[in-house]
Design goal:
Number of helices of chain B: 6
Radius of gyration of chain A: 18 Å
Number of helices of chain A: 11
Number of strands of chain B: 11
Distance between the termini of chain B: 48 Å
Strand order of the largest sheet of chain B: 4-5-6-9
CATH architecture of the largest domain in chain A: Orthogonal Bundle
Shape of chain A: globular
Structural class of chain A: mainly alpha
Radius of gyration of chain B: 25 Å
Helix content of chain A: over 70%
CATH class of the largest domain in chain A: Mainly Alpha
Number of strands of chain A: 0
Strand content of chain A: under 5%
Oligomer: heterodimer
Largest sheet of chain B: 4 strands, antiparallel
């Protein structure tokens, strides 16, 4: 069973999860939990909170596997999106305000991400970093603050001293540009 | 919001960077706009790459997830048994094998509760207890609790006797704990005052000398320890509260742990009143 699962596609694993095969969830965990935890921790700056988020994402996949639609992207992207959403919810909750203040202070001190060390696949990392770096400064900063900082576009606007509309447009335009840039990578990516 | 205004939000929405009210507007719109759905999918792909950092998941996380879902799993396909319950008690165990212990239960307020390290060995009572357990071949209708056959009236051991009395008490509620293969292994019988008894009804493999079974409960989404059952549990008194929604047992190092660290052996949940 174990061997079969290791060769199974993510979509098949999710089908097995729908039939309550815990081994299938374990395999999804083996493939993706590290990346999910990495993202949650990066956004939350707190390992314990990040663990809670990852746990929640997996329990949600277990209870509602039908929410994953293989036609709309890979399981990894789906789980990362879930993780990011939950992490941001955590961040915006009252209780984590203090951690957030501490985090913002340290973010300011360590500005500039070294994506190369953090991105799962080095070849992809290279492309992603290039695509990000090639963006106009305003777009790149808006995306980084929103995604990795977990800030709303309104907060980003305040932080950068820009109009909200400008920040909205920059995020959208920047993501669009990166998508075009990363098209070859996106096309080549499998489930894992 | 106009279509153009919503479109403008899609990038921020893909990064979870819009206000909740805006998110709802975008979601409503996505239901009926394939063009925006396609654009969002593209943004999400990019976000997926940005967030795709590597790394290891922390040790023990899978065990906690697995523990939680074993509980869910044990409950979903098969509702708890409501009809007459037959307690199938295994044959008498060898004297001296039983080391039961239970930890006092404070109101569980945190996920992690430190347990007293010391185990209370019932050792000397084992022979008597084993005999009583062997006699506890009871057939119980657990709704009206009409006890049709309790041959344990002569119980000489306090715990087993009290467990038998609890089963006979019409006000008891019981939870059947099953293995992943669904075979019932134990019954948790609780009285209205919170006093409860773990009663082994099926095979619970004896653990090595340095391990103990540990009983856990889910309370408001958190897992708390209720007590140690020993390495070859028979009847063990524990305290429960009505807000405990699930129960499960894991094998842990002697003395217990603060959170489950191994796979769930059996699990069960109270049936709705």
């Amino acid at each position: 069973m174990r061997t079969d699962l290791q060769g199974a596609s993510d979509a098949n694993l999710v089908m097995a999860i729908a039939r309550y095969h815990e081994d299938a969830l374990a395999e999804v965990y083996r493939r993706h939990a590290g990346a999910l935890f990495g993202l949650a921790k990066r956004v939350l700056w707190d390992a314990a909170l990040a663990e809670e988020v990852v746990q929640e994402v997996f329990l949600r996949l277990w209870s509602s596997p039908e929410r994953f639609d293989p036609d709309r992207g890979s399981l990894r992207s789906f789980l990362l999106a879930q993780t990011h959403g939950r992490a941001v919810d955590q961040l915006r909750s009252e209780s984590s305000r203090r951690q957030r203040e501490a985090r913002d202070a340290s973010t300011a001190a360590t500005a500039g991400y070294d994506l190369e060390h953090e991105v799962f696949d080095l070849a992809v990392a290279e492309h992603v970093r290039d695509a990000l770096v090639e963006l106009p400064e305003g777009q790149r900063r808006a995306i980084e603050l929103a995604y990795f900082g977990g800030h709303s576009y309104r907060e980003v606007a305040t932080m950068l001293g820009e109009p909200e509309g400008t920040v909205k447009s920059r995020i959208r335009a920047g993501l669009g540009k990166m998508h075009a840039q990363l098209a070859p990578v996106l096309g080549a990516r499998g489930d894992e | 919001m106009t279509h153009a205004e919503i479109e403008e939000l899609l990038g921020a929405y893909a990064l979870d960077a819009v206000e909740p009210g805006e998110a709802r507007v975008v979601e409503d719109h996505l239901q009926e706009c394939p063009r925006c759905r396609a654009e969002l999918a593209a943004h999400r792909e990019v976000a997926g790459l940005l967030g795709n950092a590597g790394g290891e998941a922390p040790a023990g996380l899978w065990e906690r997830i697995s523990g939680e879902l074993s509980l869910e799993h044990a409950l979903q396909p098969e509702p708890p048994v409501l009809g007459p319950v037959r307690l199938e008690v295994p044959g008498a165990r060898g004297a001296g094998e039983l080391a039961g212990a239970n930890a006092p239960l404070a109101a569980p307020s945190r996920r992690v509760r430190r347990l007293p390290a010391a185990s209370l060995a019932l050792g000397g009572l084992a022979a008597a207890l084993a005999l009583v357990v062997g006699l506890l071949s009871v057939k119980v209708s657990n709704l009206d609790t009409q006890v049709t056959d309790i041959r344990s009236a002569v119980a000489t051991n306090g715990v087993a006797q009290q467990a038998a009395l609890a089963v006979a008490n019409p006000e008891h509620r019981s939870v059947e704990l099953r293995s992943a293969g669904r075979s019932p292994r134990a019954l948790l019988v609780a009285l209205p005052d919170g006093q409860a008894y773990w009663i082994t009804t099926g095979p619970m493999p004896e653990l090595p000398a340095d391990q103990t079974y540990q009983l856990w409960a889910a309370v408001a989404g958190q897992i708390v320890s209720i007590g140690l059952l020993g390495r070859a549990p028979s009847d063990v008194p524990v305290q429960v509260t009505t807000n405990m929604t699930k129960f499960m047992v894991t094998a842990e190092p002697l003395g217990g742990t603060t959170r489950p660290t191994s796979a769930v052996v059996v699990a069960g949940s109270p049936s709705p009143i």
